[in-house]
Specification:
The protein is α/β, with parallel strands linked by helices and 252 residues long. It folds into two domains: 135 residues, 3-Layer(aba) Sandwich (Rossmann fold), CATH 3.40.50.2300; 112 residues, Homeodomain-like (Arc Repressor Mutant, subunit A, Orthogonal Bundle), CATH 1.10.10.60. The chain is 56% helix and 10% strand. Strands 2-1-3-4-5 form a five-stranded parallel beta sheet, sandwiched between helices. α3 links the parallel β3 and β4. α3 packs parallel to α4, α7 crosses α9 and α11 packs across α12. It is elongated.
C-alpha cells in the first residue's frame, strides 16, 4: 500500500481531501497529516510518503520552501500542490520542484481522484521500470506542456480548438493552462489558433484561382459567409476586398 501525506494548515481542507479521496481503490493507506511545512518536513523523514499534498500558503514554512527542502531527497515522491484561485504565482513557482499536478480550492472529488490515479500509475511505472530516472523524466513540467499545446495548435489550427481537451489530457485547469500559455507566447490559446488560421486564409486569398468558398472549406468553416465575417473581424476588411487590394488596415 502507498503512503500519503497532507501538508495544510487548514483542518477543514485536510478533512475534505481525506473524505473525498478513494484511497483504498488506488492502493493508498489513510493519509497522514501535517499542519505546516516544518511538521511536513519531519513527517517526510518519519514515514517517507509516496504521495504528498502540499498547500502553498502556510505559517512557519510555506509550500515552496517545503518543496525546496524535500524534493531532492525524495525524488520518487509524487507532489500535488493545493492552492486558491488567487495564488497562481505561488503554484507556478512550485512547478520547478517537480510537482506532479495542481488542485484548486475548493477541492473537487473528480479532480482529486484523477490526481490520485495519475500518481499511483506513475509510482507503479517507477517500480516496474526499476530505473534510476527521476520524476522530471516521467512527468512533463508546465513549460513542456504549453509547448506541446502550441505544437498541436500549429498542426491543427483549422480544427476547433477545445481547451477542455488539453485540461483533461494534462490534468491542469483550463484557467491555469491559458494563463501560462499567454505568459509564454504572448497570446491566449484561442487567440494564437485564430492568428494561425487567419494567416493561412490570407495566404490562400492571394491565390486568385481559389474560390473563397473553397478557402472556407479548407479552413473548416461551416460556410463562406461565416468565414468572411471571421476574416473581417480579424483584419478589418472582407476577403474580397483583401483579394483586390492585397492589403488591409489591420494586417497583424
Amino acid at each position: 500500500m502507498y503512503k500519503a501525506l497532507i501538508v495544510d494548515d487548514e483542518k477543514h481542507i485536510r478533512k475534505v481531501i481525506t473524505a473525498l479521496g478513494k484511497w483504498s481503490k488506488y492502493g493508498i493507506n489513510r493519509p497522514y497529516y501535517a499542519s505546516d511545512g516544518k511538521e511536513g518536513f519531519a513527517a517526510m523523514r518519519e514515514i517517507s510518503p509516496d504521495i504528498v499534498f502540499v498547500d502553498m500558503k502556510m505559517p512557519v514554512m510555506d509550500g515552496p520552501a517545503f518543496l525546496k527542502a524535500t524534493t531532492n531527497d525524495y525524488p520518487d515522491t509524487q507532489y500535488i500542490v493545493i492552492s486558491g484561485h488567487s495564488e497562481f504565482e505561488f503554484a507556478r513557482t512550485a512547478l520547478k520542484y517537480r510537482v506532479l499536478d495542481y488542485l484548486l480550492k475548493p477541492i473537487i472529488e473528480e479532480e482529486l481522484n484523477g490526481v490520485l490515479k495519475k500518481a499511483t500509475d506513475l509510482l507503479c511505472s517507477i517500480k516496474e521500470s526499476d530505473s534510476d530516472r527521476d520524476n522530471t523524466e516521467l512527468v512533463l513540467n508546465i513549460d513542456e506542456i504549453v509547448f506541446l499545446i502550441k505544437t498541436h495548435i500549429e498542426k491543427n489550427y483549422s480544427r476547433d480548438i477545445a481547451l477542455q481537451m488539453y485540461a483533461e489530457q494534462y490534468h491542469f485547469s483550463k484557467e491555469y493552462l491559458s494563463k501560462v500559455f499567454k505568459e509564454k507566447f504572448g497570446k491566449g490559446i484561442y487567440e494564437y489558433a485564430m492568428g494561425l488560421r487567419m494567416g493561412r486564409a490570407r495566404e490562400l486569398l492571394i491565390d486568385i484561382d481559389m474560390p473563397i468558398h473553397e478557402i472556407a472549406e479548407r479552413l473548416r468553416y461551416k460556410d463562406s459567409s461565416y468565414f468572411s465575417k471571421a476574416f473581417r473581424n480579424y483584419f478589418g476588411c472582407w476577403p474580397t476586398e483583401f483579394r483586390r487590394n492585397h492589403s488591409c488596415n489591420r494586417m497583424d
